[in-house]
């Protein structure tokens, strides 16, 4: 299964700014903290993932491919723990959650 993910990457850059001090222009170099978003593609073997519905039920086998439809929200968990029920309530009813299987 191929996933496209966006990651926020903090970056620092310098910028020259002209300020008026005592009626005279003064050029200062300041450090600016920016955030840029980077798209990363990753491939996961389907056997290494559990696919859960928004109500926490697991979808097995070939049914996974039937459930993956255009415009459907798909989220990926960062660890093998299923998301807490409080978070699942915030998702759309047809959302799918990809959870890595424990190693």
Number of strands: 6
What is the spatial order of strands in the main beta sheet? 4-3-6-5
| Distance, first to last CA | 18 Å
Number of domains: 2
Instruction: Give the H and E element order.
Output: EEEEHEHE
Query: In terms of structural class, how would the helical and strand content be classed?
Result: mainly beta
Largest sheet: 4 strands, mixed
What form results from the Cα inertia axes? elongated
Proportion of helical residues:
under 10%
Strand content: over 45%
Return the average pLDDT rounded to an integer: 88
Short description:
The protein folds into two domains: 4-40, no CATH class; 44-100, no CATH class. The protein has helices at residues 63-67, 85-88; strands at residues 2-21, 24-43, 49-53, 58-59, 74-76, 96-100.
